[in-house]
Amino acid sequence: GQPSVFLLIAGSLCGTSGADMTSTTLLLTFISGLTVAHYAAAGPPEPCPFDPCNVLKEINALKEALEARDFLCFRINVPKVAFSARTSKGGPYGNIQDDRTLTYNAVITNVGYAYNPATGIFTALVKGLYYFTFFAHGGGMDRIQLQLKKDGTVVAEIHDHPSNADTADNAGNAVFLELEQGNEVSVTLLAKTAVWGEGFVTTFSGVLLSKS
Predict the structure, then answer these.
(1) pLDDT of residue 51
(2) Who has greater pLDDT, 9 or 110?
(3) CA 196 to CA 194: how far, in whole Å?
(4) What local confidence, expressed as pLDDT, does residue 3 receive?
(5) Is the sign of the CA dihedral 95, 101, 103, 108 positive or negative?
(6) With contact defined as beta carbons under 8 Å apart, do 59 and 81 qualify?
(7) Which helix (H) or strand (E) holds 40?
(8) Of residues 100, 171, 92, the one with CA closest to residue 139
(9) Are 100 and 149 in contact (CB under 8 A)?
(10) Which of 11, 188, 196, 209 has CA 20 to 30 A from 102's CA?
(11) pLDDT of amino acid 165
(12) What's in the keyword line of the UniProt record (predicted)?
């Protein structure tokens, strides 16, 4: 009967698209009209296990929930996007004559597969707020300079000058970015700079925090 229809609709609330939710709203409106017409034509009410007025209230409550796009359902439907990768290049890497995208070629985590270890580029799957970190280790005699870029524009940087006073250095930075679907984020290794390219010390990570 009608109660089973209501339970089915309520149970599927969080798994429907915009078009499906519109169709469900229309269905609820139709059921509401039928309920009113039925009890208007039926004359004096007979004993019944449920009150038609309460049924109409439940229908209206479900309609309001669908039209409001319940926030919890929105959160459930946010895709999972997260990655961490490291360099695996056999030792010191860099000191070349031109800038180039640093490929973090050893993937640790790649939920959603938005990061490409062959190119070193992360591509935003959806519009939203993202968080990125990048860290580097290097020899004290090498200059470390990495730039985090969004579609080729620098948004964060790490830089350590060479020194005779120490044998190794570490550097890191982080940034929140609002991205559109298709925006690209990567790390550039600047010319005549170097990082330690082996182990677990030179890394690049990112995660989708919220969908816009």
Answers:
(1) 65
(2) 110
(3) 7
(4) 46
(5) positive
(6) no
(7) helix 18-41
(8) 92
(9) no
(10) 209
(11) 78
(12) Secreted, Signal
Answer for the pair 183, 124: CB distance below 8 angstroms, yes or no.
yes
pLDDT value at position 58? 73
- Specify burial of residue 27 (Cβ count, 10 A radius: 0-12, 13-18, 19+): middle
Residue type, position 9, single letter: I
> Quick check: 144 and 138 in contact, CB under 8 A?
yes
CB 202 within 8 A of CB 136: yes
Cα separation of 155 and 185, whole Å? 10
Q: What is the token pair recorded at 142?
A: 């090498």
The C-alpha R_g of the chain, in whole angstroms, comes to 28
Residue with tokens 């009608």: 2
Q: 145 vs 11, which has greater pLDDT? A: 145
* Amino acid code (one letter) for 11: G
Element (H, E) at 170: strand 168-179
Tokens 């080729």 correspond to what residue?
Answer: 152
